[in-house]
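can u do me a favor
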């Protein structure tokens, strides 16, 4: 055993040598905090520790029955000894010879020869109290609750170990332990008024700033009988943090970090009322991603989630100061915006959203060209509270969807009527089939190299008895929804066959393409039905192309491939229509039996913006050996571009819009070159 030094001399009651300590009649021992072992003890201490010899006592692992709280407290003591020359007394119950005895133990720091600080423990006296007191003393010693007794001036009269571990020794917790002075003042004034107080406050402690739940009451110091304040404190920081997190989570969406529906109902409402009370106007804008479900179903939820995150970040970038943005759930977002000329402002915001949110993007190997449908309702014109505004904006959004998606619509009072008129239209549609109100128009498809018509796309028109010719954008979705799309498409196919044969009989050999609705792929008999019609009409499938959209490919993978293979084996060409407008997994595309890719008109019409991505699509189609058709060609410049890219064919107003068959027939003479052979 080497030399030990009592920490600093000012504290020293005894000399540095063990012989002196040894000679003391009172039990003294040194506890090595780092090792959780007794480092040294004098004979009376061996007695109260019930040890046969010093070595036996030194061999005892004291950590074995030490709680985590005690270990932490001891470490705190160690720091206090070193920094603050601390010394204090505790009442301890030990078991010499197996019998419980209670002692008043005096603790102070002592430096071991290797420089570490240990704890010198000296038993001052045996403590004789009634069992009740002893037990409460024991409880005070071990509880996590910090218990302190203060004089009315804030001087510390007593601190239990938990309190001592918490507050820096040289700091009077009341008032200096408060992180915010007003918390202390609040506590003090309540105490002055009622004599007790309960509050939560942020305290400066040895463990940093912590939330304490404080309960204080005026009492008397049992020793002096003078007035004192008894304070008990519990560290509730973890609880507080969990609460804070819970309330954040309750109002935010974890995926995008945007506020959620709860937030909208609370805070959008508040903001709206503030605006209205200042005579300002506001717009509630409801944004819904078109066909989002297909992304999730076919490309997987991870891609879906990534898309939503991208959309959220694009939206955030487009917000003006003061705008509020939230995600309502799924693919629905909502914006509350205010401006002086609200209607003009809302329109221009919607246009920006449609424009900027629909830029194509590649998400883990999938090309996504998102489109949106937007509904707008205005306050105070359409409604004066968030709930009604949301309902109206939602209705307007459905109108935008009905009108063909990728657009915005404003709420109007007649919208409820419009929904009724939709039913009227649905009814009229059913009659239209029976009453032969549908017609097929043809739009020429031109060989990019030689300018010849190689074929035509059959596009349906509805000749409404009162409204005249109606374009399919208005009614195709309705036909899909009310289940008559199969009959309609079969009618178009029938007409296409009829005209193809007429023109062939006149020596004009054309390949006609027809559109198939994605809904038809739900019909397992689709391939059989089509083949049966061709057999019945003795038509040649090789003269026809079936156009399907990417979304049709997104359904039941295996069955779709089977059905398309069956059709291709029968001689039909398969074209993928509107390529790049939906959600396509470029890697999966190869799995489908496809002959032709029709690049959507939005690409060629915004060439300066999308040139790179359009080039990428062309390159992809070439790798896959597909015939490339560019749709929506309106200008010579666009034509020059597609020729340069080596695209094979094009369609568009530059040559002709879709026209009735009689007019189309007249184009035969309009050709610059007579198409001798379409196989090139
Ligand atoms: P789609 O298959 O992409 O057809 C091309 C659409 O683009 C046609 O609109 C056509 O009129 C239009 N178009 C052609 N050239 C140009 C151009 O240079 N510039 C512009 N801006 N547009 C051009 P349409 O006929 O209104 O058809 C709209 C959509 O309705 C079609 O898009 C197709 O998805 C669907 N559809 C049309 N007929 C049928 C049908 O018989 N069955 C099914 N299932 N869907 C059909
Ligand atoms: Ca088409
Ligand atoms: Ca198309």
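np, heres the sequence
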């Amino acid at each position: 055993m080497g030399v030990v030094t009592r920490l600093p001399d000012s504290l020293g009651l005894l000399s540095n040598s063990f012989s002196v300590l040894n000679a003391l009649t009172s039990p003294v021992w040194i506890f090595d905090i780092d090792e959780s072992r007794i480092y040294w003890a004098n004979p009376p201490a061996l007695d109260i520790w019930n040890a046969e010899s010093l070595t036996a006592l030194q061999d005892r692992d004291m950590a074995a029955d030490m709680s985590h709280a005690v270990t932490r407290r001891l470490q705190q003591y160690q720091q206090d000894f070193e920094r603050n020359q601390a010394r204090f007394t505790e009442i301890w119950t030990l078991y010499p010879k197996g019998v419980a005895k209670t002692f008043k133990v005096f603790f102070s720091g002592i430096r071991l020869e290797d420089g570490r600080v240990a704890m010198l423990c000296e038993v001052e006296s045996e403590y004789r109290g009634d069992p009740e007191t002893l037990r409460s003393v024991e409880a005070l010693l071990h509880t996590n609750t910090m218990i302190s007794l203060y004089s009315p001036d804030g001087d510390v009269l007593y601190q239990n170990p938990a309190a001592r571990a918490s507050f820096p020794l040289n700091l009077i917790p009341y008032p200096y332990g408060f992180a915010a002075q007003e918390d202390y003042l609040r506590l003090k004034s309540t105490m002055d008024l009622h004599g007790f107080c309960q509050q939560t406050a942020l305290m400066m402690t040895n463990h940093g700033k912590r939330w304490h739940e404080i309960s204080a009451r005026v009492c008397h110091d049992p020793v002096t009988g003078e007035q004192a304040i008894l304070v008990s404190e519990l560290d509730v920081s973890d609880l507080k943090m969990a609460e804070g997190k819970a309330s954040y989570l309750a109002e935010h969406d974890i995926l995008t970090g945007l506020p959620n529906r709860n937030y909208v109902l609370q805070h959008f409402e508040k903001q709206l009322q503030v605006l209205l009370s200042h005579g300002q106007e506001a717009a509630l804008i409801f944004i819904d991603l078109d066909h989002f479900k297909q992304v999730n179903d076919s490309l997987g939820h991870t891609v879906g989630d990534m898309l939503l995150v991208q959309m959220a970040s694009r939206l955030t970038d487009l917000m003006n100061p003061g705008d509020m943005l939230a995600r309502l759930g799924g693919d629905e977002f909502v914006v509350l915006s205010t401006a002086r000329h609200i209607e003009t402002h809302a329109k221009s915001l919607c246009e920006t959203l449609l424009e900027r949110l629909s830029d194509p993007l590649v998400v883990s190997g999938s090309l996504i060209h998102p489109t949106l449908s937007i509904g707008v309702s205005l306050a105070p014109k359409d409604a004066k509270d968030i709930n009604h505004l949301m309902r109206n904006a939602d209705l307007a959004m459905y109108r935008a969807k009905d009108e063909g998606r990728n657009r915005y619509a404003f709420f109007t009072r007649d919208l409820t009527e419009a929904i009724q008129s939709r039913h009227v239209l649905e009814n009229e549609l059913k009659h239209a089939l029976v009453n032969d109100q549908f017609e097929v128009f043809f739009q020429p498809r031109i060989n990019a190299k030689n300018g010849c018509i190689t074929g035509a796309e059959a596009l349906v028109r509805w000749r409404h008895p009162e409204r005249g010719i109606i374009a399919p954008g208005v009614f195709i979705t309705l036909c899909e929804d009310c289940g008559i799309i199969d009959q309609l498409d079969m009618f178009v196919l029938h007409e296409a066959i009829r005209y193809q044969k007429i023109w062939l009989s006149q020596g004009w050999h054309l390949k006609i393409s027809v559109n198939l609705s994605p809904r038809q792929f739900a019909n397992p008999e689709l391939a059989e039905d089509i083949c049966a019609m061709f057999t019945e009409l003795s038509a040649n499938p090789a003269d026809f192309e079936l156009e399907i959209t990417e979304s049709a490919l997104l359904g039941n993978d295996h069955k779709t491939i089977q059905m398309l293979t069956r059709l291709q084996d029968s001689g039909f060409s398969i074209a993928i229509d509107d390529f790049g407008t939906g959600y396509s997994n470029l890697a999966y595309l190869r799995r489908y039996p496809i002959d032709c890719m029709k690049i959507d008109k939005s690409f060629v019409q915004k060439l300066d913006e999308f040139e790179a991505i359009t080039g990428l699509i062309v390159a992809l189609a070439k790798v896959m050996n597909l015939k490339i058709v560019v749709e929506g060609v309106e200008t010579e410049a666009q034509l020059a571009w597609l020729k340069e890219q080596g695209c094979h064919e094009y369609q568009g107003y530059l040559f002709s819009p879709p026209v009735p068959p009689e007019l189309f027939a007249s184009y035969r003479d309009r050709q610059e070159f007579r198409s001798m052979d379409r196989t090139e």
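The chain is about 40% helix and 25% strand. hope that helps!!
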